[in-house]
Specification:
6 copies of one chain form a homohexamer. Chain A is of the alpha+beta class. Among the domains of chain A are: about 110 residues, Jelly Rolls (Sandwich), CATH 2.60.120; about 30 residues, no CATH class. In chain A, about 20% of the residues lie in helices and about 30% in strands. Chain A contains 4 helices and 13 strands. In chain A, a hairpin with a 5-residue loop joins strand 8 and strand 9. The longest helix of chain A is centred in the N-terminal third of the chain and has 17 residues. Chains in contact: A-B, A-C, A-D, A-E, B-C, B-D, B-F, C-E, C-F, D-E, D-F, E-F. At the B-D interface, helix 1 and strand 2 of B face strand 1 and strand 4 of D.
Chain lengths: ~210, ~210, ~210, ~210, ~210, ~210
């Protein structure tokens, strides 16, 4: 009987030691960030709710210019993902909806169609176009940093879940990067071959100035 | 006009050069493997179908002892994932279905419930249990290498998609590792504290010998 | 002569600059953790004793149920290992001693027998068993996250040093994960195929409740 | 004297053993690729010329539509870089020259101005614009995967060397991705908010079809 | 019109979320370090000047014993490089100048000659010597951790920029490590095969004691 | 009963799929190498002996100029370590024995004294010396790429096992790199501050030419 207690003590000791491990590093959004992610929340305060997220259960609001919504579950929304090399997002595409050309600077993506039909494509550094219309249950890869898009290919709402190979994949929508900030029109013209008049018009639509 | 052609030539040159890049490395399942994954399929033979997989569209067969099925989309099934640090799988849990305790030796996991309700849990190195009943749309994290399970928590079928932080996460179901191979009963008894009689019974159920 | 001073000054400048480097990042166990490990102790306070550890010199106490002891030199015990991708531990196995089935969720392991004889084995994701009786001086590999065990194979004490490919490999002993915490008996029964009576008995031995 | 020979033999043995190491892995451009890069050229055939590249010594041809040239020294051009996590390129910008908006999907970039003056900028995922006119000797960072550009900011030729954190950084020029391939005009219109007429005009300039 | 505002709001929300990302982690030199680098400067205080560095524009002072100077742009001097896997330095070699044998413990190096001529070499673990005289525009690789040197091979000043595969490559000049600190002469003699008299002489030149 | 068979079939299918995984990648020394290591031996031919190595059981021959021996168990000697991020070696130091100053270009090292007493030290990039006399059971860290040495500190034989954070750490002994190959005496003189006469003498001892 005494031996059992010794065992338990031995393992308790071992476990308490290794419990300092960053095996689980729930992000502390208030703490400083590091190149490897957020600092860890005190393990003593971690509960199961740090590992569960319900934010993707509800459809995003698609009453907007693109008739679409992206709902992220990245480490900034779901700090349990901090340091884990993975994250998710939900896409809602109303009829006619489109996720315009964009990139994720820091992650590969896999899209899984859970409802409806989606036409998706990406373009490689070698300028090859890969295009496919996906049905429910299909999955498609979009390699890191490459331009890609998704278009609702049916007459009803389409929904997809997307998985990323980083807790913080980033998102750069080309149109917003070009026309949704204060980058001067003449600089855009010089670096995109577009006419200043077109640029100014799109700045008007997408909120850009200058 | 001549300048345009020069430009095109310049970029064609540039693109053809960089097209050698392993930016896309669809796995060649027949070639040798390496610690970083499969060797790459010849880029000239790559088509959009290398980036699309339909194997998760169909429900797995749950007419079995666990009333459940796991359908993987790892790099061995979907070679487009080779080298990309991500993969997926589909879980089907009939009423009463359960994915027994298991680990993924090489990947973190995020589970997304797409239908029904699932009770899931994992245990840390510090021997803490994290347990939660998940509803449709909930996501839950299972950190790399830690024991975890999923149980259908409702009266109807439950379905989930799981994402992994590796194209080849591995899967080790504890019961099958203990009782589904030729590991001698006496060794199992010594290393699990279980009685030989119980071990032999479970070997009978799970296909083990010795 | 003046030139020499200039040289010294030049290099002193260079060295003082690069001394900010995280070339050496002794862990500060009181600071916050990050996904890459502990924050670094102030380099000004680092001494040679931060790089030396004597905790493995003494035999672990094997007067317990498994007649064995594991003494870790992970980053939590030896903070000099922080961020270095390596750690050690010492195994002591009295006659009849056994390290029960366990995994290291975050590291590959290499075991070196320094005294006596050890029977060791591991099981792969493909459910293949690799089993070997090791003599003094033999080394054996246990790949990351896979179930493995060690048994004293001789009549006298056996000692081994084990090396890990992470400063914080983690340790999950299956029996303790199943039977040494508050995971409910009915959940364990459902996810392991074991009878509730057996589970309750093992919970009694290993300190579990519920 | 005999001892010396023994020593030499000892070390020769040791060195010949470790010479199998992938410490140096000059890429074999004819062999299969892997996710970690090219397979290695036979070490026996490696010479110093595998580690030296003269292709950046000569100015690129800037007689083209952008009055600029990019000359890469990536692993496809300079196989000695294979597996080393670094590569270079040379930029030549004639007066009025511009490197249009582009990304490197797989690498961070640092630009060093070696002649003339360059106005450069990048845009983050948070849609912030960072813009600067650089003089000779200035260096500037362009983080991985983010849209950026370079414009000759002076009246004479400008030259820069750029370094990347990958042997194979990739290069995706947005205009060429949008207008220089067979992506259908209607798809581009839907995913960029641009008018079909403008798209068709740019396809005419940049070699696109459909 | 209302829809446009909704869109803007949608994306603003998305962008503000993802702006927490460590996509850009300018190092806070005052904060604690981590194995992955410095903690990040508050993104709200980041300006374009965090991404631009002018310290390499000016020649280093070569009026010293080696007639040479190394000017680093590592993360300690240029905190914008924190976490980016890349850094630069400038070499100035007056006539007769030499960068003595040294290693970079944590990075591969690529050298680009921008003026003059440089004889450079490195030695592998297999004890093979790779030696080359480089002209303006040539680039040469020096693999991580291997001993290498650079000598001005012409009669006029030579300048080079060097790129590293780490923001903090480290620099260990063998002569300074052997003779420029307080390592006792007898220890140096035993570990280098050099006579104590020679060691003491070099300690005198390079500032060593003991 | 039929259900059991279905289960077994289900898992057999799953396991056979995932068995393609590079979870275990025993190196094929005859195949081509890659930046991530050797290509994998055909899994069908892998046996337990691929994971066990007895080469460290026997003392190295210390009848040589340094009265010491290094016996490696790197991936070239023990291919089971391929891709695993870890390796070992054995040090034998006869009385008076010394492992001269050396570096491991690609790995951190931890030394464990198993017999006798060893004086060991390393020097950082900041030129700080860390020196310690170690007793049996002590462990000491030598960070990647930094110069270090080991000296027998007692009157009897000393033995140590060393662990590395790479399957292929490399080994560069400074004296052999300087004086054991065909690097011309005048180049060595210029890059080490040593007199040509001393260099020629050491070349004579260590087998160098030129």
């Amino acid at each position: 009987m005494k031996m059992f207690h010794t065992t338990l003590f031995l393992f308790a000791l071992l476990f308490s030691c290794t419990s300092h491990a960053a095996e689980i590093c729930v992000g502390d959004l208030k703490g400083p960030e590091t190149p490897s992610g957020y600092t860890c929340k005190n393990p003593a305060n971690v509960t199961v709710d740090d590992f569960v997220f319900s934010g993707l259960a509800k459809a995003g609001n698609t009453t907007n210019i693109i008739s679409a919504a992206v709902t992220p579950a990245f480490s900034a929304q779901f700090p349990g993902l901090n340091g884990l090399g993975i994250s998710l997002a939900r896409l809602d595409l109303a009829p006619g909806g489109v996720i315009p050309f964009h990139t994720h600077p820091a992650a590969n993506e896999v899209l899984l169609v859970s409802q409806g039909s989606i036409c998706a494509g990406f373009i490689t550094s070698a300028n090859t176009v890969y295009l496919k219309t996906l049905k429910k249950g299909d999955i498609m890869i979009f390699p890191q940093g490459l331009l890609h898009f998704q278009i609702n290919a049916g007459g009803s709402i389409a929904i997809a879940s997307v998985s990323f190979s980083s807790p913080n994949p980033g998102l750069q929508i080309t149109d917003f990067a070009f026309f949704g900030n204060d980058l001067p029109t003449e600089v855009i013209a010089k670096t995109t071959f577009l006419d200043p008049a077109i640029i100014k018009k799109l700045k008007g639509v997408l909120g850009g100035t200058n």
